[in-house]
Design a protein that fits this description.
Thrombin, subunit H, 2 domains, six-stranded antiparallel beta sheet, six-stranded mixed beta sheet, 18 strands, elongated
Length: 378
């Protein structure tokens, strides 16, 4: 129906009576969407304790940095120090990053490595301090005794559950009266409080922190979950107030790819950085006379280091961009404590209850994710 310009509440000679026209929908403008939670989806399991734990493991490292300023540039030195000599063993074929020379490790003593230079006819090149010395592979001797077993220890990680609760109370009169656009006032209030708690859950998943002392909670200590930002410590890029560009984004994604087997598939940003991402395609956009729609939207970013869905969440700080592997993230309810309504005892002419849920974040292998901080916001 076209716009007529007539007011909904008016009187005139042709009208039989004065009537108030109230629509059957209550308009809500407050933001309550949860795009990151929707993207992650419901978990396949629940937490079973207020202190939620999971195990992580790594493979044995295959590189350690050269740590010997005395041998810099030498093409003949056969002994030098590394940061961690335990990475290497006799028989390893090794190569300094950026060099074509292959060396054979003939002995290891503490953090000192002895090598055969120019192994296999390769040309010896100058050593570079603070550069990774990477193992190509180990060449075992035929018939030799077995080496000592080497292994890694599994690591136990943890987070804490957080209770999200909101009270609902409706008077007997409100329950009995006919409400405009609302069939049941109690159900309407439950729905409103649930929207608020889901909004707060998404915000906590991104920005939450645990108490510095007694994080398990107690009578006087509120238990809160650690969010994504507080759990990411390895792949943190400081943009130093520079504007987001493809070089910065790809460098961060490459760093994560080099540090782990994680596959970044999700970019989470606030409105300002979303516009910066959209700007990546501005120069490549083309139109002709038949185009009647201007499209300025980047919803998927595909690079050599991952195909990422771009999620716009208003709860990410304006100067921050999150790079996540969604297969390693779950938002778990405590068993039997998903969001639900719990009636409270009636003490007068009203009905009351709590909308309540208890959740935690499980972020596995934090070095499989990353964050870019201190991006320009103007």
């Amino acid at each position: 129906m076209s716009f007529t310009g007539k007011a909904t509440f008016s009187a005139g000679a042709t009208l039989p009576e004065l009537a108030e026209d109230v629509g059957d929908v209550v308009g809500i403008v407050s933001p309550y969407e949860t795009p990151l939670l929707d993207h992650l989806g419901d978990p396949q399991r629940s937490a079973t304790s207020t202190v939620h734990e999971w195990l992580e493991d790594t493979l044995l490292p295959n590189a350690s940095d050269v740590n010997d300023g005395l041998v810099v540039g030498s093409t003949t030195e056969t002994g030098f120090s590394v940061v961690d000599g335990g990475v290497f063993r006799a028989g390893d074929l090794v190569q300094v990053e950026g060099s074509r020379e292959v060396m054979l490790v003939s002995g290891v003593s503490g953090n000192d490595v002895t090598v055969v230079r120019g192994y296999g006819g390769t040309t010896a090149e100058g050593l570079v301090d603070a550069t990774p010395l990477r193992i190509i592979g180990n060449a075992a001797l035929e018939g030799q005794d077995a080496d000592a077993a080497r292994f890694t220890n599994r690591t136990r990680r943890q987070n804490y559950t957080q209770i999200f609760a909101s009270t609902v109370e409706v008077s007997g009169s409100q329950l009995a009266a006919t409400q405009a656009a609302v069939a049941d006032e109690m159900d309407y209030q439950k729905q409103e409080r649930l929207r608020e708690l889901l909004r707060d859950l998404e915000n906590s998943v991104i920005n939450g922190v645990a108490p510095a002392t007694d994080p398990q909670g107690g009578v006087s200590t509120r238990r809160s979950m650690k969010g994504v930002l507080s759990m990411l410590t390895t792949n943190v890029t400081d943009a130093s107030s520079a504007a987001l560009d493809e070089d910065t984004l790809n460098a961060a994604m490459r760093g994560i790819w080099e540090a782990s087997s994680g596959g970044i598939d999700t970019i989470v940003v606030n409105g300002f950085q979303k516009r910066a991402l959209n700007g990546f395609i501005a120069s490549a956009r083309g139109y002709d006379a038949r185009n009647t729609r201007f499209r300025d939207l980047l919803s998927v970013y595909e690079s050599d280091f991952g195909v990422c869905r771009v999620i716009l969440s208003r709860w990410v700080p304006a100067d921050t961009l999150l790079l996540l592997d969604s297969s390693r993230i779950d938002v778990l309810p405590l068993s039997g404590r998903s969001f639900g309504f719990h009636p409270l005892a009636t003490t007068g002419d009203s009905k009351a209850g709590q909308v309540l849920g208890e959740y935690t974040l499980e972020l596995r292998n934090e070095n499989a994710h990353g964050v870019i901080r201190n991006l320009a916001t103007s």
